[in-house]
Amino acid sequence: MVGAMANNGRIRSAFPVTNGSKDLTPNSAPASTTGSEYGPVEFTREDVETLLNERIKYKSKFNYKERCENMMDYIKRLRLCIRWFQELELDYAFEQEKLKNALELNEKHCTDMEVSLKNKEEELNMIIEELRKNFESVQVQLAREQTEKLAANDSLGKEKEARISVEKAQAGLTEELGKAQGDLQTANQRIQSVNDMYKLLQEYNSSLQLYNSKLQGDLDEAHETIKRGEKERTAIIENIGNLKGQFSALQDQLAVSKASQEDIMKQKGELVNEISSLKVELQQVKDDRDRHLVEVKTLQTEATKYNDFKDAITELETTCSSQSTQIRQLQDRLVSSERRLQVSDLSTFEKMNEYEDQKQSIIDLKSRVEEAELKLVEGEKLRKKLHNTILELKGNIRVFCRVRPLLPGENNGDEGKTISYPTSLEALGRGIDLMQNAQKHAFTFDKVFAPTASQEDVFTEISQLVQSALDGYKVCIFAYGQTGSGKTYTMMGRPGNPEEKGLIPRCLEQIFETRQSLRSQGWKYELQVSMLEIYNETIRDLLSTNKEAVRTDNGVSPQKHAIKHDASGNTHVAELTILDVKSSREVSFLLDHAARNRSVGKTQMNEQSSRSHFVFTLRISGVNESTEQQVQGVLNLIDLAGSERLSKSGSTGDRLKETQAINKSLSSLGDVIFALAKKEDHVPFRNSKLTYLLQPCLGGDAKTLMFVNIAPESSSTGESLCSLRFAARVNACEIGTPRRQTNIKPLENRLSLG
């Protein structure tokens, strides 16, 4: 019986016995069943035949107990043998199924091989046909060469004649040799002058070292200035808080004063109305009194004539006296009302004065607040400038962190649970805290943008860095993060919405506007643009007009774009399309063209996922006609493809290959950053096309900024933590002090990446 495969895939020998790690020979006794309840027992052919042919011997035919025990032992061994056969049968079935699958795979492989062989055969037939054509052309060329050979024989005679003339010329060369010796003496004198120049350069180098030590002293002073600025900023913020408190208290007092003034004005109006009504009543009473006095006089004159009207006169006098009393009362009320009116006018005047004083104090407080805020803005600008200067002197890579807003359908409560922003003075606007498994991870970067930050806010922070490209520096800005974290939105923006333009369009607008404004100072700039993508470790030219050169069916570009670095730190990409641009509108058109050619795909994490690394390069060549100074700047804006986990993205087929290539290149980028952070002698830039292309930006004299983009939902916490840790390592890397590229030589053209 032949060997079989066990369930775990190992090869089993023909009926070996594993008990005691010994093999049974054909003359050996049957396998013992001792320990068969605790471990597997295997049988050989001889064991099975021995077991089947075994005859049980008994000491006594009538000892049934012994016969039962021997029979039970024999039955147990038979059961073990049967069980082993059943397991072996299962192993055979499993092995048979496995062999069927392998056979199907081999048949499929053979089919693929037959197809590929047919394709190869067709290719070979085409090659043979081409070789035949080449053979015919070679025959024609051979006949032509024979004709040329005859002509060469004719020319040989002419060469002999020419040799004679050469000998004559040799004599002339001897004379020129003497002249050359004289020139050699002149060259020796020039070498002496070069040596003198070398000594001068050594002296200049020593002066540069002194200047470097002075810069270090200035750096220490800058540190102290930053500390003083931080203290002044703290005091200004406290002063602003106190002024805001005073301002709110004065506003409350002003509101109370306005309310009391309105009440007084209402009382004044009521008193004025009451006084006017009292004056009317008083006038009426006076008229009644005069009329009654006239009547009294008339009655008195008539009383002498008519004593009968004496009672009426008495009644009229009583009425007149009562009316006089009423008049006096009304006069008293009028006097008191006038006094109250005077008092109310006085209080109103005092309230108006108090209102004007408070209004003036509020204006003063507003001006003080504006001055304090202006000082705060200037202090922040000074802090940023000193911070950038320190970073440039250190040579660190700057890192900005941006958290995208929650998308429709995502849990709105997740951000408050997973991501928070510290409010302390040291970490305000620069810190971010990530909560994972009830553990807080704190990070600090050069700038942190909350989800409420607009595209304009983000661009404002990098505008000075973009300006450096016009000043002759190499500038590199790249976006890093997981799939769906907002990298492409940060770099490109949303098409058709001017308010949501990304960094690339805004950078171009600033460069063209600045170029226009610098013309008055004598500067003229020439701009060249190139765009490429790295897809599955293959470089594609996104500006190529040949569609077949951009992409083929199998996703591999037929053109080989080799990357080369020269001694000056510039990078050349062979066969890459480079175009001169005159306006931002031309660049926008080229960006749209590149976006249509770029590789995108749909995954479970992103509807429009970038499946390649996009590199936009703007090369700037400037010359000042008045000073004859020339500058060479490079602006590299890079949108990296997003890292993703296969368990979340659900990538299969081509998407799976793309994901593997993306993760491999990003892993190589991490190895480069890790080596730079540890200051190792060897940095593995050549491990991927991406890192080799970025070598001048990561290990040269460029100003480099990385955006780390974060998704706020809790399901992405693990990827966000990995991205933040990677960004912290990047922030700690020192790549060297940026160097401005200025010269007086003609500028080289056709360079794609600085």
Automatic annotation (TrEMBL):
<feature type="region of interest" description="Disordered">
    <location>
        <begin position="13"/>
        <end position="39"/>
    </location>
</feature>
<keyword id="KW-0493">Microtubule</keyword>
<feature type="coiled-coil region">
    <location>
        <begin position="268"/>
        <end position="389"/>
    </location>
</feature>
<dbReference type="GO" id="GO:0005874">
    <property type="term" value="C:microtubule"/>
</dbReference>
<protein>
    <recommendedName>
        <fullName>Kinesin-like protein</fullName>
    </recommendedName>
</protein>
<feature type="binding site">
    <location>
        <begin position="481"/>
        <end position="488"/>
    </location>
    <ligand>
        <name>ATP</name>
    </ligand>
</feature>
<dbReference type="InterPro" id="IPR019821">
    <property type="entry name" value="Kinesin_motor_CS"/>
</dbReference>
<dbReference type="InterPro" id="IPR001752">
    <property type="entry name" value="Kinesin_motor_dom"/>
</dbReference>
<keyword id="KW-0175">Coiled coil</keyword>
<dbReference type="InterPro" id="IPR036961">
    <property type="entry name" value="Kinesin_motor_dom_sf"/>
</dbReference>
<dbReference type="GO" id="GO:0007018">
    <property type="term" value="P:microtubule-based movement"/>
</dbReference>
<keyword id="KW-0067">ATP-binding</keyword>
<comment type="similarity">
    <text>Belongs to the TRAFAC class myosin-kinesin ATPase superfamily. Kinesin family. KIN-14 subfamily.</text>
</comment>
<dbReference type="Pfam" id="PF00225">
    <property type="entry name" value="Kinesin"/>
</dbReference>
<dbReference type="InterPro" id="IPR027640">
    <property type="entry name" value="Kinesin-like_fam"/>
</dbReference>
<feature type="coiled-coil region">
    <location>
        <begin position="85"/>
        <end position="148"/>
    </location>
</feature>
<dbReference type="GO" id="GO:0005524">
    <property type="term" value="F:ATP binding"/>
</dbReference>
<keyword id="KW-0547">Nucleotide-binding</keyword>
<feature type="compositionally biased region" description="Polar residues">
    <location>
        <begin position="16"/>
        <end position="36"/>
    </location>
</feature>
<dbReference type="InterPro" id="IPR027417">
    <property type="entry name" value="P-loop_NTPase"/>
</dbReference>
<feature type="domain" description="Kinesin motor">
    <location>
        <begin position="396"/>
        <end position="733"/>
    </location>
</feature>
<keyword id="KW-0206">Cytoskeleton</keyword>
<dbReference type="GO" id="GO:0003777">
    <property type="term" value="F:microtubule motor activity"/>
</dbReference>
<keyword id="KW-0505">Motor protein</keyword>
<dbReference type="GO" id="GO:0008017">
    <property type="term" value="F:microtubule binding"/>
</dbReference>
<keyword id="KW-0963">Cytoplasm</keyword>
